[in-house]
Amino acid sequence: MSIYLNKDSKIIVQGMTGGMGSKHTALMLDAGAAIVGGVNARKAGTTAEIAGQELPVFGSVAEAMKETGANVSVLFVPPAFTKDACIEAIDAEIPLMVVITEGVPVQDTAEVWSYLQGKNTRMIGPNCPGIISPEESLAGITPHTIAGKGPIGLVSKSGTLTYQMMYELRDFGFTTAIGIGGDPIIGTTHIDALQAFEDDPETKAIVMIGEIGGDAEERAAAYIKDNITKPVVGYVAGFTAPEGKTMGHAGAIVSGSSGTAQAKKEALEAVGVKVGKTPSETAALMREIMQGL
């Protein structure tokens, strides 16, 4: 089993004919993803040859879904056009929308998030590496060669830390690894992913990677206490970050004591989540748990 994405997922790429879109479409195909076409209104009716495959280009998400049965869209669209591309996908009722784009204006994301409420689409991102169910499918930019299939679920705010954790625990493998993005407003939260992993019978333990800023990790800690029965280990990036400075991700800013790595670590440890001081220490904590299962 996997969450949100599996071998039967049919993926379209909004922005497939652009530089980043075509490059990562080839890498997704290499990972075994079922890419069934792209969307570019200006190139509708043409095809694009990517990694030896002729992929059709459609004028809209709705048309692509109707013609191919697509149920996932991955967006490689410039920040200025991301809001419109998201709203188009939501209007077409695509079940899963993975927004890779970095630098989307927060107001645009807020409008998309608001528009999503009560709709049939799940958004992952923006500013994220997407989602991979190893040996099944990839919707995003996570290198598929890092780790294979196994019993660990991974949810992370950080792309590079997603990759490092997959590499550190490659001897065990993953059901799904999901990068939720580091912006202040995102579509899928730690809590959403934790519950999905809790409900997935093949996920035996969960790694949760957070970072400074906001209160998402504190809220996840409260949720874990009441709802999650599987073992969770955590890592919080940013123990050495100076106060009041945005660090890397747009959402990673500490004000006062709220949002610090230490505060998040304490909140998680208070509900029984073991938290590593480094990614490697976190992997070692998970290794102990897996050897005891």
TrEMBL record:
Reactions catalysed, as given in the entry: succinate + ATP + CoA = succinyl-CoA + ADP + phosphate; GTP + succinate + CoA = succinyl-CoA + GDP + phosphate
UniProt keyword annotation of Ligase present: yes
What is the top EC class of this enzyme, as a single word?
A: ligase
Any idea which positions bind CoA? 17-20, 43, 100-102
Which residues of the sequence carry a binding annotation for substrate?
163
One GO molecular function term of this record is: succinate-CoA ligase (ADP-forming) activity
**InterPro entries in the record, alphabetically?**
Cit_synth/succinyl-CoA_lig_AS (IPR017440), Citrt_syn/SCS-alpha_CS (IPR033847), CoA-bd (IPR003781), CoA_lig_alpha (IPR005810), NAD(P)-bd_dom_sf (IPR036291), SUCC_ACL_C (IPR005811), Succinyl-CoA_synth-like (IPR016102)
Task: Quote the catalytic residue positions.
Answer: 249 (tele-phosphohistidine intermediate)
Domain CoA-binding as annotated: residue spans: 4-104
Protein's UniProt keywords contain Nucleotide-binding: yes
Enzyme Commission code: 6.2.1.5
Q: In which pathway does it act?
A: Carbohydrate metabolism; tricarboxylic acid cycle; succinate from succinyl-CoA (ligase route): step 1/1
* Protein's GO biological process: tricarboxylic acid cycle
Specify the superkingdom: Bacteria
GO CC term (a single one): succinate-CoA ligase complex (ADP-forming)
- Protein family according to the UniProt entry: Belongs to the succinate/malate CoA ligase alpha subunit family.
UniProt subunit comment:
Heterotetramer of two alpha and two beta subunits.
> What is the purpose of this protein?
Succinyl-CoA synthetase functions in the citric acid cycle (TCA), coupling the hydrolysis of succinyl-CoA to the synthesis of either ATP or GTP and thus represents the only step of substrate-level phosphorylation in the TCA. The alpha subunit of the enzyme binds the substrates coenzyme A and phosphate, while succinate binding and nucleotide specificity is provided by the beta subunit.
Q: Mind telling me what this protein is named?
A: Succinate--CoA ligase [ADP-forming] subunit alpha
Q: Which gene encodes it?
A: sucD
